[in-house]
Amino acid sequence: MKTADYSTAKAILDGVDEAVAASERTWGVGRLRLLVEDDLRARWDRQWLAWCRACEAYDLAAIRTQGAAVRRAIGVLEQAARAAGHEALRSDVWEVLHEGRAVAVCRTSAEAGVVARDRRDLEAWTVEELVRVALAGRSAISAVKQAFPGAEVVAMRSPAPAPDIDWERGDELPPDLAGAG
Q1: Cβ distance 24 to 117 under 8 Å?
Q2: Average pLDDT across the chain, whole number
Q3: What dihedral do alpha carbons 67, 65, 77, 10 form, nearest 10°?
Q4: In the predicted structure, residue 103 carries a pLDDT above the cut 70
Q5: Quick check: pTM over 0.70?
Q6: Which band of pLDDT confidence, cut at 50, 70 and 90, is reported for residue 91?
């Protein structure tokens, strides 16, 4: 590919990338194609494959044609999704500072994907991930929350390590284990 052709191809690629990124900011990463009918989704998938093949082949004429087609297809997908009653992502993302790290809490994986891509300063977690982590092996905490509605977890600590006692050496029991105090 000649330098001028390469520059043109790169400009088209940049434009398609921006169109895809704009759509992902609106609809979520990988979400839009799932909101439309199967036939339209299959047509999109074929179009995307044609675009990828044009880029891989360094075929400027195909890059022009397929790039323009991808941009039109994004508009068609968005129109079909809205016509089917779907809405763009809401921006319900909560941010919290935890132990010096900025963390984003998102409702869905699609929202977390957008945050992860657009806000590299944030560690993105979905509500489902947090629940999975919070409840894994935490039956005692869950039991307390059920017994005392409204109870709040304010800190988590690992249990204190068992004291290093060597009975062969004649070590004494620590006061908290010996009942002294």
Answers
A1: yes
A2: 85
A3: 0
A4: yes
A5: no
A6: low
Instruction: Tokens for 123, please give them.
Output: 């560690």
Helix 60-83 / helix 38-57 crossing angle, nearest 10 deg: 160
Q: What angle do CA 40, 34, 77 make, to 5 degrees?
A: 45
Does the pLDDT value for residue 128 go beyond 60? Answer: yes
Nearest to 25 by CA among 93, 123, 80: 93
98, two tokens? 């935890």
For residue 78 the two structure tokens come to 């968005």
Partners of 93 in the β-ladder: 106
b (16+ CB within 10 A) / e for 110-123: bbbbbbbeeeeebe
Give the pLDDT mean for 100-122.
Answer: 82
Cα-based angle 42, 47, 53 (whole degrees, multiple of 5): 125
Token pair in block for residue 168 = 């062969």
Q: Reply yes or no on whether the pLDDT at 147 is more than 80.
A: yes
> Any bridge partners for residue 95, and if so which?
104
| Domain locations in the chain as residue ranges | 3-83, 93-147
Using alpha carbons only, give the angle 75, 32, 55 rounded to the nearest 5 degrees.
70
